[in-house]
Amino acid sequence: MTRPQIYLFGDSITEESFDVGGWGASLANHFSRTADVVLRGYSGYNTRWALKVLDRVFPESQGRDGGTETAPIALTVFFGANDACLPNRCSAYQHVPLHEYKENIRSTVSFFKKRWPTAKVILITPPPIDEYARLRYPFENNPEGLPERTNEAAGEYAKACIAVATECHIPFIDLWTKMQQFPDWKKVYL
């Protein structure tokens, strides 16, 4: 009997989710006796790049007995932090316009629903951005000294993610809103 699987698909937030105390590690611990949590996180990726690798990351395969593969019970899709980079700043190469981001998320959901109709697809919004911390500890060479991401832009992508989830009648986790509801969220979560 094959153990049920849960796939985590996303950018570096997903890739690093198995670090000590990470959300992926917590899921794996929670489901340790009942399901395998499978990591498919790609640092730096946006939805445009994710679409290009979907078939390779999630190939159609045959089961051991020649039958079809077992569908995962659930998948998370967690993109948007890189898509929301500002188009005229140092991380512009990662930027995806909002309308394209929405279409890319729709296409990703459609891919999974066609591949595994019984799997529950869950969208996760991009998290909020602490602009001050990003300037203080930049990931890119930033000669202008301007934030390459803003919380406002991340919020627009979060709203777009929620809109797609609503259109597709699938669940979502509004991380952007939930994290900011906690006092000192910048110190606690980012």
Automatic annotation (TrEMBL):
GO biological processes: lipid catabolic process
CDD domains: Isoamyl_acetate_hydrolase_like
One Gene Ontology MF term: hydrolase activity, acting on ester bonds
Domain of life the protein comes from: Eukaryota
The keyword Repeat appears for this protein: no
Keywords tagged on the record: Hydrolase, Lipid degradation, Lipid metabolism
Alphabetized PANTHER family for the sequence: ISOAMYL ACETATE-HYDROLYZING ESTERASE 1, ISOAMYL ACETATE-HYDROLYZING ESTERASE 1 HOMOLOG
Family classification: Belongs to the 'GDSL' lipolytic enzyme family.
Protein name: SGNH hydrolase-type esterase domain-containing protein
Organism (species): Trifolium subterraneum (Subterranean clover)
